[in-house]
Design goal:
Helix 2 runs parallel beside helix 5, helix 6 (107-135) runs antiparallel to helix 17 and helix 7 packs antiparallel against helix 13 (324-330). The longest helix is centred in the last third of the chain and has 35 residues, at 416-450. It is built from 23 helices and two strands. It is mainly alpha-helical. 51% of the residues are buried. Residues 1-11, 229-248 and 557-580 have low confidence and may be disordered. The chain folds into two domains: 8-207 and 276-533, Growth Hormone, Chain: A (Up-down Bundle); 536-579, no CATH class.
């Protein structure tokens, strides 16, 4: 069997693997840098564009939504087309959309550009996992997963810092242009360094109807979650409640239409996928216990990862009065936890071949980090906040990549693309829904607190004490756009910081039950040993086994009949011919 495996695949040295991975690592670095460089600047960006909390949430959610929807599409395409070309296409889409985002003149344009950006991000996320499976076995992949964790950590730490400095010293628009030269280098490196084994050609069939249905279902539910319970203003300045078409903000006619439409689209999607010859997400994968439980666990990881990156930056700026640069520095403990856990655990998995214990510890850290962050206030000791962030980061680092690894270890080689992208899809979907729900909870909590009698009395007294300056401050707070807290007078700033801290801690509480579910799913994962064969080697081994079986069957026919069957004809027909 081993003779059917090419030497380049079975004897690839550590240096050759690193050379092949360099393009992937650089592509992921471009993706992460372009995404994180704006995270510390988003409050300033939304303030300058005149957006409110809903716009802030959708600037993030738009990218996560299209990333989630496009991930299984890229995964399916990777089983049908050249994976290297697809990876280069994903980089190109991502950076062009990022550049357009830098030209945004209003929140709508920014959200649209970020949505297109997510299409490229989905490709980079899905294809990097699939390509890794092509060239590295699950047993050896742990230490290389650590490299991806390191790149993620460096870009996640460096991005907000770089973005904060650019925003404070130049202009936030340059945050979107900074990734362009890195993208050009990534395309060149991928072209020269990434060499993948050839895959057998398959008949191409894309499930377009499934794509439309999935997009419709997810988009309707997210738009409902983001807007339900909020109010907007019409052209005459009158408040329009989301529930004006019904008796209640959350239980209104619009709610029935959007939730009902989303659920109907989801049900039709399931029916279509069951009947499709080339389904976008093969629902037969859910028969595999490992895949199903990994998907459940990945949803919580996505909520923790995306939710923390979005709302921790807001907490630093809106609740602690930090500048964008300072906010980037203050989130380092979380990234440190992610970096250390992903590298150390990856190396340990490769060395000892054991993985389940580390995932269980990671699940415990996710619960601890989510819960402790739900207790923070504007004046909580920052050392404690750092410990809470470190716990959450360590939990994400131990679970995120390794859940994909576990699925790839047990999935048939022909379905590696859709299985890997399936886990990534549900992680992104979990993050998208999590950010939307947490953002809606934050907006509702802040609105309630700002309208309470106690806060109104404190705010009125603080504004009155400012004299003439108070009128301008009051106008800014009443505009509905996100305040630039670091520039508010101290008397008002303390009140606003307290309100936003309560809102953000309330939103983190939502992640706790999902983290508990994630731990339960991890505990019940089958503890299957990691194989030392790459996907390409497993595919060739399967083909070799099939050829051996076919040859054995053919020899049985020859022995029984004494004749030579015609190639392509059934054995019975050959036997009938000899009998004649």
């Amino acid at each position: 069997m081993s003779s059917n495996i090419t030497p380049s695949e079975s004897t690839r040295s550590h240096r050759e693997v690193l050379t092949a991975l360099s393009g992937l690592l650089l592509g992921m670095f471009v993706s992460m840098l372009a995404s994180t460089v704006v995270s510390s600047s988003l409050p300033v960006i939304i303030h300058d564009l005149g957006g409110d909390q809903a716009a802030y949430t959708w600037v993030v959610t738009a990218t996560l939504l299209t990333t989630a929807i496009s991930t299984p599409i890229w995964g399916k395409l990777s089983d049908l087309f050249n994976r290297k070309v697809l990876f280069q296409l994903a980089i190109t889409i991502f950076v062009l959309a990022t550049a357009v985002a830098g030209l945004s003149q209003d929140p709508g344009m920014m959200i649209a550009a970020r949505a297109v950006q997510g299409l490229g991000a989905g490709g980079l996320a899905a294809l990097s996992q699939v390509i890794m499976a092509d060239i590295i076995s699950p047993r050896e992949r742990g230490k290389y997963m650590g490299l991806f964790g390191a790149v993620m950590a460096v870009s996640t730490v460096g991005g907000p810092l770089l973005g904060g400095v650019i925003t404070d010293t130049i202009n936030w628009r340059w945050n979107f242009y900074i990734s362009l030269p890195f993208a050009i280098i990534a395309l060149i490196v991928v072209q020269k360094a990434l060499h993948l084994p050839k895959h057998p050609k398959k008949q191409t069939r894309i499930d377009y109807f499934g794509i439309v249905l999935l997009s419709t279902a997810v988009a309707l539910l997210l738009i409902w979650v983001t807007n339900a319970g909020t109010t907007t203003v019409d052209g005459q300045g009158h408040d329009l409640a989301w529930g004006d078409l019904g008796n209640n903000d959350w239980w209104s006619l619009l709610t029935v239409l959007m939730v009902g439409g989303g659920l109907l689209a989801a049900i039709i999607f399931v029916v279509v996928e069951l009947k499709s010859k080339e389904p976008l997400i093969p629902l037969t994968l859910f028969r595999d216990r490992t895949f199903t439980l990994s998907v459940v666990a990945s949803i919580s990881t996505g909520i923790a990862m995306f939710g923390s990156s979005v709302f921790l930056s807001q907490y630093m700026q809106l609740s602690r009065g930090a500048t964008p640069t300072q906010a980037g520095l203050m989130t380092i403990p979380m990234i440190g936890g992610l970096l250390l856990s992903s590298i150390i655990v990856g190396a340990l998995i490769t060395r000892f071949g054991k993985w389940k214990g580390y995932l269980i510890v990671g699940g415990v850290f996710l619960i601890a980090g989510s819960y402790t962050l739900s207790t923070i206030h504007y004046d909580t000791n920052f050392a404690l906040v750092s410990v809470y962030m470190f716990l959450l980061g360590a939990g994400v680092g131990m679970t995120m990549q390794n859940l994909v690894l576990v699925v790839q270890n047990t999935t048939a080689p022909s379905q590696i693309g859709v299985a890997s992208s399936g886990v990534t899809f549900f992680r992104s979907l979990g993050g998208t829904i999590g950010v939307s729900v947490m953002g809606a909870a934050l907006a509702a909590k802040v609105t309630d607190l700002m309208g309470s009698d106690s806060i109104l009395a404190k705010m009125q007294a603080a504004i009155m004490s400012l004299g003439e300056e108070g009128a301008a401050v009051a106008k800014q707070l009443q505009s509905g756009s996100l305040p630039e807290v670091s520039k508010l007078p101290e008397a008002v700033r303390v009140i606003v910081e307290d309100v936003y801290a309560q809102g953000i801690s309330h939103s983190f509480l939502i992640a706790v039950p999902f983290a508990v579910i994630s731990l339960i799913a991890i505990i019940f994962l089958p503890n299957v040993p990691l194989t030392r064969m790459t996907t390409s080697e497993r595919r060739q081994a399967t083909e070799a086994d099939f050829a051996t079986v076919s040859t054995s069957e053919g020899m049985s026919v020859l022995t029984a009949t004494g004749g030579v069957p015609v190639v392509g004809e059934p054995a019975d027909e050959a036997r009938d011919g000899n009998e004649k």
